[in-house]
Fold this sequence. Notes:
The chain is mainly α and 181 residues long. It has helices spanning 21-24, 33-45, 56-63, 67-79, 119-131, 134-151, 159-173; strands spanning 51-52, 83-86, 89-92. The chain folds into two domains: 14-116, Winged helix-like DNA-binding domain superfamily/Winged helix DNA-binding domain (Arc Repressor Mutant, subunit A), CATH 1.10.10.10; 119-173, no CATH class.
Amino acid sequence: MSIDHTFVRRPRHGYGWVDHRVVSGGHLLHLNQAEAALYLLLCVVANRHGISWYHPRTLARLIKHSPRAIEIALQHLQQKALIARMDRLVQVLDLPENEVSPRVLTSGPPQPVAAAESSDTCIEIRAQFESLDAADREELQVQARQELNRLLNGRSPSEKSIEDLAISYLGRRGSRDRIDP
């Protein structure tokens, strides 16, 4: 079969995209096999805001790596400023406009969505969330639902996603008295 120069791809469903600078800018050269496969998968499954809700176990199954390898790859991609993470949510970040080699952070990962917390901190924040009165919990969940609806372009988020995001608001709130996502 020969190449058809008149052929134009017309995807019937939405699809992700990968910035060509991943290759031309040298980023791909600085990723190991698991990181490269995971990054490319995240680019394909992310919505228009770069966010993926795929569970790490699903990511591991799709690229045929162990869950531990996925967690390490996620950490490395975050350190290289290619993604940001908040619990299970992963956001693919824009590549820099005028850069030939990948960014390596010295002051910590970017936080456009939220910083990944240690599991002990997450457990403490979840317990704090569960100890809130119903009105405060509902206020956080309303804010989370609104944000997820915006990010999902009107599709309904799962109750688990709403709760996870509401809990992350509480974690970011820290010692402040007001709820401010």
